[in-house]
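name: query_chain
kind: protein
chains: 1
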Amino acid sequence: MTETLPPAGIDLFDVERLLLAEAAEPPLPPQDAEARDRVWDTAVRANPTLFDGPVVACGGLEQSGPRILRLSWVRVTYRHYALRRVPGATALPSLFVNVVQPTVDGRVLAARMSPSTAAPGRWQLPGGSVEPPQDGAVLDESALAGQAARELAEELGVEAVPDDLQLWVVTRGENGSIGLTYLAPALPEATLRAEFTAAVAAERVQGREPELDDIALVRSPDELAGLAGPHADYLEPIVRRFSVGQ
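structure:
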């Protein structure tokens, strides 16, 4: 029996198995599409680094058994989320992967978004939007772990084997956005800081602004609260959950 999950909020769901199925994008009234494009064009003029690339949205999330979640996904582009700023329009929830990267002494790495990003100064976990499969590939649990590992490498310089990343929890937060949170093997603080410094330097040598401009290692929600600036809505519940489990 399939059970629809409760109304959206800052929710965390335990999961042992994730079932994925592609769904079609819901039809959009022409007036909403025009308004979406106007909002997007305005945003791009303000921040020319914004890119209308392919991305995956969440078409629905249901619990189909104990610790089993069924997720439908939809191919869109980043422009789709401009619908959030169109009165009366409905945008699909975003779908993203992120990673809890612990230290060997039990802290969690939080990362700060660079000024050039869509969320400047925001503290969050390393990660990013889920991308659609290409060239006949499928979007399954293995592919998602691969995307999470790629985000770690690109943003932190930390090389992780996808099989070593455990799907730890699923979050649902702002705008109903769904986060697939993976747990990575613990690493020494010195290793994390050295890899991050090297990754940032490599981006700047290429003339690119790194997506992340700082990291912090926190042991508890109280330490997290000391980080100045906005925080991703899922960050405090994730840090709390991890600290309780230590």
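note: The domain at 3-245 is CATH 3.90.79.10 (Nucleoside Triphosphate Pyrophosphohydrolase).
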